[in-house]
Amino acid sequence: MPDIYTPDLMEVVNVRKQTPDVKSVRIQFQNKARASQFDFRVGQFGIFSAFGSGESTFNICSSSNWKDSLEFCFRKVGRVTEALWRVEEGDTIGFRGPYGNGYPVEKWEGKNLIFLGGGIAMPPIRCAVWYALENREKYGDITIVYGARTVADLVYVDELAEWAKRDRVRVIQCVDPGGQTPDWKGEVGFVPTVFERSKVAAENSVALVIGPPIMIKNTLPVLEKLGMGPDSIYTSLENRMKCGVGKCGRCNAGPVYVCKEGPVFTMEQLQMLPQDY
Amino acid sequence: MSEIISKAGLRELAKEWIAQGKAVAGPVQTKPGLVMYAKLASADEIVWKGFVRPANSVKEFVFPRHELLCTYKMEGNRVELANDEAEIPAQILLAVRPCDAAAFPILDHVFNWDCRDELYNRRRGATTVIALACESHDESCFCTSVGLSPQAERGSDVMLFDLGEEYEVRCLTDKGRALFAGKTQPSERTAPTCMGPDPRFNPEQVKQFVDGQFTSPYWQEATLACLGCGACAYNCPTCHCFDIVDEGNSQHGERVRNWDSCQFAQFTLHASGHNPRPDQGSRQRQRVLHKFSIYPEKFGEILCTGCGNCTRNCPEGQGMLTLLTGIEHA
């Protein structure tokens, strides 16, 4: 009897080292029938496992238009990610999902998109950027402000460069003061300040802000100053999860199961929740 | 009119069930002074009287503290997964306290909303619950504060009432009737109503307080003694939080789920080091919030049956009751 906790077996088809401690991994369903049924929304997450070490929760950072494989990206910080760090092409890992609500990409149609990300928050923004670029006529201007501690900590830098070449896309990269190299051409400063001095027009826009709590906290006043209301600012919560299906009791933030009603919330929704995330 | 069975008759019946291969569990004295729900090797092991309630809860018979999800076997870069296909034998939970039985329909919600947890359902489906109405209570009991009583029928297939030499038998479901069909005699005797503990708090007020006073210093002050051991959650009939871990090596092993508790520091710890609930105050507040606000909003009932096991098992003598009765003065 396969149960809701038994993962699908996935073959690793590509591994890329993004930074000294971040890798992205592309995987395919070994069961081809399952692969053809599988569908997801950008912004949803999966539970990925290295057998013998356990499961961990990551955003599915590939676009939902890419049917042949899924991608996830992680920083090596613990037992499971240490094990996932060691996987190579051809290896088998586990996947459960997709879980959660995803981004309301239909609601975003006709709007300018502002993406603000810090550190390892690029992957959950990346899937939305690709989705918007693949449905280019449905979305307005795209602005991406992405910062990391140092130049070496920026992930998906090749894709950032590619996006910057696209029509009506502005990419602003920054590193924390002290994190720059002599040949760094991007900005130096924290995401909220760099965003503020970049003078991004915020009319008819939605913003997706993902990053460490301190970055989100300091970015919100800047967005408010630009006239953006809390109903047009989105984020994705990172509460710890185990089951992904609203049973294990771990990801509650007040009355919501982040794994079911989230992880994507507007700031307006978050203001209604107790500070439990 | 009522149906009764003699105490000797019930013991014989339990022997019959065991002989038929059914797993029968009930209160057993596991060491001097300690009564716990446990599987019976013989019907004579069961302890019927002389204690308020077992120190553990019966949830472990439908939601074991350690349960196999799947096994994995690795060969080269291939992995084989297998699920546990073993049949779950019919099991009878005998002389269960009403505050334990009432937890089953509460747990049913969480394991069946949205997607169904068949690991839970197959054990639940194989289980018949025979409750024994309480005749005594202690200072930790508070069933009457959460809408239950010493004779509450919720979650039971059969209710037994002690009449001295016999038990009055009230079959409440077909499952229960199937076990007792032809085994009882009609009688004129019925059990007197037993008064439970006086209500100690109003759950509506608890909800208002925990919803409105999320940042109140009360949570910190009232829980300073909490050691974060999780005994309250492990012995609670309704606490159901779990962890999923791999136990094995890189060749073969098991993926299992183990009980977990919101009282543990690692429960909500992010990989980044950020912890939304960094202290026992916020963890105890979560336990109250889940039981008296989150769960009632989602499923329409309180995630607490007033059994008092949290207080009885707490090394600091705290528990839901101490925390909730203190709200009045907060």
Describe this protein's structure:
The complex is a heterodimer of chains A (277) and B (330). Chain A has helices spanning 32-37, 79-85, 122-134, 157-164, 191-197, 213-225, 258-261, 267-272, and strands at 8-19, 22-29, 45-50, 54-59, 70-75, 92-99, 112-118, 142-148, 169-175, 187-188, 205-210, 233-236, 252-253, 256-257, 264-266. With 277 residues, chain A is of the alpha/beta class. Chain A has two domains: 8-99, Beta Barrel (Elongation Factor Tu (Ef-tu), domain 3), CATH 2.40.30.10; 112-236, Rossmann fold (3-Layer(aba) Sandwich). Chain A has a seven-stranded mixed sheet with strand order 10-9-8-7-11-12-15, with helices on both faces. Chain A has a six-stranded antiparallel sheet with strand order 4-3-6-1-2-5. Chain A has a two-stranded antiparallel sheet with strand order 13-14. In chain A, helix 5 (191-197) runs parallel beside helix 6. Chain A is globular. Chain B has 330 residues and is an alpha+beta fold. Chain B is 28% helix and 23% strand. Chain B is built from eleven helices and twelve strands. In chain B, the strands form two sheets. Chain B has an eight-stranded mixed sheet with strand order 3-2-6-7-8-9-1-10. In chain B, strands 5-4-12-11 form a four-stranded antiparallel sheet, with no helix packed on it. At the A-B interface, strand 4 and strand 13 of A face strand 4, strand 5, helix 4, strand 11 and strand 12 of B.
Question: Features of this protein?
Answer:
heterodimer; A: 277 residues; alpha/beta; Elongation Factor Tu (Ef-tu), domain 3; Rossmann fold; seven-stranded mixed beta sheet; six-stranded antiparallel beta sheet; 23% helix; globular; B: 330 residues; alpha+beta; eight-stranded mixed beta sheet; four-stranded antiparallel beta sheet; 11 helices; 12 strands; 28% helix
